[in-house]
Amino acid sequence: MNKLVSVRPVLVCPPDAAPLTARAAQVFAEEIQLHTGLRLAASACPVGGVEMAAILTEADFCRLFPEKVALLERLPAPGPEGFRLFFEQEDGVRLNLFAVGCDPRGAFYAMGKLLRLLRLYEGRICADWLFDGLSSTPRYAMRGHQLGYRDKQNTLPCWSEAQFDRYIRDLALFGSNSIELLPPRTDDNLFSREMQLDPFDMMVRVARIVKSYGMDLWLWYPNMGENYPECLPQELQEREAVFAALDEVDGMLIPAGDPGELFPEQLFPIAEQCATLLHKHHPNAKVMLAPQCFAPEPGWYEAFYREVCKEPAWLWGVCFAPWEKDSIQEMVDKLPPVYRGRIRHYPDVTHDMGCQFALPHRDPAFAIVEGRECCDPRPRAMKHIHNAFAPYCVGSITYSEGVHDDVNKFVWGQQDWDDAQCAQDTVREYVRYFIDPALEEELTRGILLLEDSWADPHPIGENGSVQEAYRLFTDVDARATEAVRGNWRYQLLLLRALADRYIQQKQRYDDGLERQARERLAGAAQEGAVQAIRGAFALLDRGRDEPCDPLLRARLLRLADALHASCGIKLTTRRHGGQRWGRGAWLDMIDVPLSDAQYLRVTMKRILRLESEPERLAAIEAMLTRTQVRPGDVYVDVGSVQSRALIRTDSCWARDPSLLRTPFTSVDTQALDRLHMHTGTWREAPVPRALLTCALSYYDTPLTLCIPGVQEGADYLLRVAYGDGGRGQDVRLTCGETVIHERIEPCDPAAPWREYHVPAACVQDGAMTLTWQPYGKVRGVRVSEIFLIRQDGRQA
């Protein structure tokens, strides 16, 4: 129970305080003024008869307030970087606020927690009179986030030095103690049209900002050469220029892949040379390697751990990161004892598909439009994922490509501080401090609804969380202050709620137009093929020319402009300068059909080129009945919501949140890329919507589907579409003991169906169980569509 009272304290911090303690007091005063407009009086020593806010280390506190030591000692003593926080009721009318750190860092984090506990309104500071005190020590030593100033990043290349300072301060106020920067040259364009400073200069300036908040500075430094060892001298020269320009570097992570393609026997000697250069300028910097590899060749991981087991002196630890084939438990088991307590987590909190912690079974409509980098608050999932891996790690530095993942960063960082904390409590503090304490409960509920909207297992049309979130956010927006409506964190959440609702409406609208178009085409024999096709085109054109909700669509675009102005996020390519739709510019997809319209359109264009009416009518019939099968045959849209129940696995997301051992359904990001790359070009081909989704597994995890409805005693022709872009893969398909194919052979990507014979012995109890087993240079398997056509002498 809270009893809020207004306070106007004098800020107490001694003149001989440690620099970071003094910085904490300065930041406190600045934040109070920013949020309330009030300027706090300051004093170097205790002041009688007035309320005080003292931000101190324990040593300073005992020296300045010896008579209050007993109050401090009521609370358990914290460990390094920890603090004690308590309020003192004086004379029944005044409330003194004490934020006391174990050390200077602890004083800073105590100050941050104090700000988060207060309710800060315009012209008013409110504190809880009944607050009983708090002692807190961070659970994990490393608590950080990666901030990349590069074109691929959907927000930060637009930022000024002051915006970096603001964001790094926000992270520090929530307990972060590390920031990881990228060097100017990575797997990206060297410059962005949005950049306000040369990336080298910005790196140096941001590094100084990091240090001004007493934080550790890390570098993420991939091997970018294409022709080792010839390119190595130039790479080392570039690296030394970076190391020499930075005042203090605390650590460097070298990913083996993503980017980078070195085999371990080559990777380790090159990493040693880089480490030697780093230690020349920063002798105490830690060096870590991440065994990331998109498609490891046989023996790659064995070679990596052979090198690690040599325990090279320059290697401080290893990193569990995206695109690693082993689970973290397998990593621990393979490491020598010296490194088992030096594992850093590099979690991808930024992406939602095609990533380390994909959102399994997300509705395809959301995935097709909102992509990988839409505003994606997943607070409860972040806590669950964090706590599944944290016991093996010294902490985390998250991977991020923008501010769309802002909620996830703060929830993850708070779990690094205290993994027993409820994620919802962090969300409350987030809303209270960053948006508006008056909206704390409503927007906390709204953020949880946004998480529910994407996690709902039902088809999008039956997703009640979407409508509930839309109502909540539109209601809040109707009465929000101008300050709230101009707040980029609030704008991001509002945009997501509006977008989800628009996509839900658009799915219904597009389905209805497709249904009408198919009905028109079904009458082609009566009115003529050309006339029926023209009518179908007119219906499908409405999906492009007459949006399902033009006012809501316009509101989304205006909000995107406002967000670009307020925080720099690039939600479109042309208007805002985003790199591409998969890199945050997802609003480019706002008009993409969510039906089979693309397949119908391109096929109808081809039909119109046929010379005779019988040919045209036959082609229309084939197009309309593409997925219709005869009795005894089976068609499976493998990536659909309805087909999820066909996947057989002993694992699940709760036990395996990285999905390394858990097949799932998703949009095929590579298929979407190909679709948009070729739309409107001579290479454009009809792409059924079913080919945009798939069931998939990662690395060498088998994918098993149990398909009912097949007939006992019958041979079948299996026609299957794989999401391999026609390249072919080392994947073995079996049905029981029968091998259906040893590998997937290359084919025309515009016609990705392969055909195989399945003998009658493969049918058991009216079902067929198919298992795909990747091998060799593995990256998993994707299956989009299956036809099982009974072979009984009929024309197939």
Give me the secondary-structure category: alpha/beta
Share in β-strands: 15-25%
- What is the CATH fold-level name of the domain at 627-791? Jelly Rolls
Q: Give the strand tally.
A: 28
Strands of the widest sheet, in order across it, are 10-11-12-13-14-15-16-17
N-end to C-end Cα span: 72 Å
Estimate the helix proportion, in percent.
Answer: 25-40%
Organism: Candidatus Onthenecus intestinigallinarum
Protein name: Alpha glucuronidase N-terminal domain-containing protein
Which keywords apply here?
single chain; 796 residues; alpha/beta; Chitobiase, domain 2; eight-stranded parallel barrel; six-stranded mixed beta sheet; 28 strands; Alpha glucuronidase N-terminal domain-containing protein
Characterize the structure shown.
The chain has 796 residues and is an alpha/beta fold. Among the domains are: 4-136, Chitobiase, domain 2; 221-319 and 331-340; 460-600, no CATH class; 627-791, Jelly Rolls (Sandwich). It contains 25 helices and 28 strands. It is globular and about 100 Å long.
Brief sketch in words of this structure:
With 796 residues, the protein is α/β, with parallel strands linked by helices. It has 25 helices and 28 strands. 39% of the residues lie in helices and 18% in strands.
Give the topology, please.
Blueprint: E1 4-7, E2 10-12, H1 19-36, E3 42-43, E4 52-57, H2 58-64, H3 69-73, E5 83-90, E6 94-101, H4 104-117, E7 119-121, E8 124-128, E9 134-136, E10 142-147, H5 161-173, E11 178-181, H6 199-212, E12 216-220, H7 232-245, E13 251-255, H8 264-281, E14 286-290, H9 300-308, E15 317-320, H10 328-334, H11 337-340, E16 343-345, H12 364-370, H13 379-389, E17 395-398, H14 406-417, H15 423-434, H16 440-455, H17 464-479, H18 482-485, H19 488-522, H20 524-527, H21 529-545, H22 550-567, H23 597-608, H24 613-624, E18 634-637, E19 664-667, H25 669-678, E20 693-697, E21 703-708, E22 715-722, E23 731-735, E24 738-741, E25 753-758, E26 763-764, E27 767-774, E28 781-791
Parallel strand pairs: 2-3, 2-4, 4-6, 10-11, 10-17, 11-12, 12-13, 13-14, 14-15, 15-16, 16-17
Antiparallel strand pairs: 1-8, 5-6, 5-9, 7-8, 18-28, 19-20, 20-28, 21-27, 22-25, 22-28, 23-24, 23-27, 26-27
Helix pairs in contact: 1-4, 5-6, 7-8, 12-19, 13-14, 14-15, 15-16, 16-17, 16-19, 17-19, 19-21, 19-22, 21-23, 23-24
